[in-house]
Amino acid sequence: MRRSIYLLALLVFVGLSFGGQVHLQKISRIDINPTLAVDADGQIVYAGVGGALNIYNIYQKDFPQLMGTIEGHSSNVKAIAVQGMELFVLWEKEGLEIYDITDKYVPIFLGKFPQETDEKFKSFTTFDLDGDVAYIGGKNFVASVDVSQPLSPQLLNYAGLNGAPMKIDFHRNKLYIAAGKLGLGAMFVPNPRYFQFIGSQHGFYTTVKGYKSLIFYGRLDDPQPGERTIFGKNLFSFPFKSPTVVKIVDDVIYAGGLTNFAIYTMPENSSNPEFVWNLADMPTLDCVLHDKIAYLANSYKGLSAFDVSDISSPVEIGRLATYDVPRRATVFENKFFVADGIEGVLEFDVSQPEFPEFVRSFGSDKLHTVWDVKFYGKDIYVLGARDDFASNIFIERYDIDGNWVAEYPVANVDNLDPIGELAFGENYCAISLGREGIVLMRNIDGVLEQGYSLRDAAVQFCDLEIRGGLLYASDYHGGYHIYRIDEGMPYPVGFVQTSEDGGNGIALRDKYLLAADGP
């Protein structure tokens, strides 16, 4: 699934001339995406929040202040590193960018890798810095890059893989690669222009970190009897599911995972870390320490600050809220509603659009994840899924104050394709379920009843529009479909193909179908 929303901005039309240029001026911004990566330089914290890089002043440790933002990218921040007066940021699509941070609040772009589009580098997942060399991992590759001249980073070496590393770490002339279901691999790197593959160890590995003679790793699955190992005894796996990050300072190990954050210590003359403290229900994708304060990138739970002066009893001293990846949004009068995945529906007051104000969230008690939110009549309809009922796709209905009104089962699907959308017409409500097709429910004065299903195994449906007796639907393979829905069983009446990988949002304006057509 392509993510099409990375931040939400409120826009105002400055001037509009039909057939001419449309001038838009951004008047405010709401950070909604999950916090994915973090690093610090003195009292400045750089945090990747979805597709934006936020800059915070942490002079008041319990109240980080947003000082600036780098935005305008089409993908998420995957990793951040500060080295001297340079800031390195890895974006999922754009690659590695280098900034001068002589003025820490105003990073100045210097250069990037790759400098031009290269088919070998389609997406990026992780990197590690060793002096003037950046080791970068992405879809089907690892590479070493000379960053001594930040204006023009140069490729030193490249090795093809059969997948994308989740984490890499350069340690004592070896490059360790946590490659998900491909296993834990290692390469001998006597110099950055030479890679020699050592071997790989079976399993599903999520993170890796070398420290002294030890290799710390996170593993999603359990070891199998008789499983072949290549790294000897000096390995330590964190005893919790889905570890994602390991940071080590003065023999104290800070480990984060998709469900928790934990602290271990390294006893003297021992290769077995001892457990100290665990914080459950706190997804932690990255962390950085500054002056006995641990700043955690807590995914949809935001950016948090913990005082770790006493590692046996850390204390949370501050938190900046961010949320899950926003799916879709709608506006009603001065209320702005966002379908925000596992966070439910977020409501903002935009009566002063320059200063959007968070009001509340709702819907997460009924749905495990929310895909879309729409207004019809005087009520709010929320599309989402949960996994503990015979039907797992539902529409929940609320009044304007967020009070629950009714529930409408939509479908039961084996594979959730989280690109669902709602579209209301006079007699039908259409629900896009991606590869699972389109469900048409009868709309009887806002009450929804089961109707018809449209299925095409070759199509991944996305956006929907209903006008009159016609349903318009886009798909992710560059197709736009038109169905007649007011004569009993729906049937196709039109189709246009624009590309192999277009097809996102659509809108009807007068006699035109407007389409966001991917690349």
Give an account of the 3D structure.
This protein has two domains: 32-257, Methylamine Dehydrogenase, Chain H, CATH 2.130.10; 328-515, Neuraminidase (6 Propeller). The protein is built from no helices and 47 strands. Helices cover 0% and strands 56% of the residues. By secondary structure, the chain is mostly beta strands.
- Please give the largest β-sheet: 4 strands, antiparallel
Q: Rg to the nearest angstrom?
A: 25 Å
Structural class: mainly beta
Low-confidence stretches are 1-7, 12-18
How much of the residues is beta strand, in percent?
A: over 45%
The CATH fourth-level homologous superfamily of the largest domain: YVTN repeat-like/Quinoprotein amine dehydrogenase
Number of domains: 2
- Would you tell me the overall average pLDDT? 88
Second rung of CATH, namely the architecture of the largest domain: 7 Propeller
Treating each run of at least 4 consecutive H or I residues as one helix, how many helices? 0
CATH class of the largest domain: Mainly Beta
| Number of strand segments | 47
Distance between the termini: 15 Å
CATH fold-level name of the largest domain: Methylamine Dehydrogenase, Chain H
- How much helix, percentage-wise, in residues? under 10%
Topology:
Layout: E1 8-16, E2 22-30, E3 35-41, E4 44-49, E5 52-57, E6 65-70, E7 77-83, E8 86-91, E9 95-100, E10 108-113, E11 124-130, E12 133-138, E13 141-146, E14 154-160, E15 167-171, E16 174-178, E17 184-191, E18 194-201, E19 205-211, E20 214-219, E21 235-237, E22 243-249, E23 252-257, E24 260-265, E25 274-280, E26 286-290, E27 293-297, E28 303-307, E29 315-320, E30 328-332, E31 335-339, E32 345-349, E33 357-362, E34 369-376, E35 379-385, E36 393-398, E37 404-411, E38 421-424, E39 428-432, E40 438-444, E41 447-454, E42 461-467, E43 470-475, E44 479-484, E45 491-497, E46 506-509, E47 512-515
Parallel strand pairs: 20-21
Antiparallel strand pairs: 1-2, 3-4, 4-5, 5-6, 7-8, 8-9, 9-10, 11-12, 12-13, 13-14, 15-16, 16-17, 17-18, 19-20, 22-23, 23-24, 24-25, 26-27, 27-28, 28-29, 30-31, 31-32, 32-33, 34-35, 35-36, 36-37, 38-39, 39-40, 40-41, 42-43, 43-44, 44-45, 46-47
